[in-house]
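Collaborator request, handled under Task 6.
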Amino acid sequence: MAEGSTLRIDNFPLDDFLVILNQHERDVRKGYLPRASFLKEFKLECLWAGDGLNSPVHISIYCLDELETLSDTLETFIIVSSSSEASRAIIPFSKRLKDALLSIKENVLFRIDPRYGAVHGSAVEPIDLSIKWDKPGIYTALYLTSDPASPSLAVLEYVPPGNQKKFSSLFEKYNGVPPKKPSFWLSALGKLTGKNTASSKEQTRKINYKIARTLITFLQKERAMSGTISLIYKNIEPEDVPNLLIDKMYIVTAKGGSDRFFGTLADLM
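Structure tokens returned to the collaborator:
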């Protein structure tokens, strides 16, 4: 594979992946899976029937990294996506997912959308009262951060004045802390002086197999059905995966192909 190539694995059964992950963790030198440092994104998919749903719904859980340009901080976030039938059920589901991440000492905060609230695309608990119906697709967004002033979360200035009280109330309801304004001055000063004003923990957080295992275990406890995992690795070479245990039928991109599961979050709605 050429330098900078992409290795993409799609729709691999979760149970089989856990067996391989266990073997990989026993002896990482064997290359049963690529090193986590190559992992750019991963996605879990399943059918789930819980919290009063009449029939199972399809749920996708995405784990992605993005560079927040204002703070120049690499942030990891998790998207729980489903259809509008799950608008109400996705809230307790996402809360339990948040607790699962907290149990491995990952700090987690909900992103509250300036219009929709905690469930993007849903009319269940909107901040903008003109929203009366759900979009076909809905999602929640969890950021692995302890900083309510992260520019990805601190969007109060984008909320019309008449709705700011409700936004603040929902933010505190789901996160246990009030929203804070991002310190643009500190971010700008850090860029000018070359100093990193963000903590080293926030700056270096990456997607890893520990997070993947936590999400898989969570889905098992939720009695999810037909679970699969898809993974995208970047800048990987053949020597990085000498004994890859994934059947070739699940490897859909071995060089240069798509390295994102979706273009923008709007694609999920």
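The cover message to the collaborator said: "Residues 197-205 have pLDDT under 50 and may be disordered. Residues 11 and 115 are 33 Å apart (CA to CA). Please let us know whether this matches your experimental observations."
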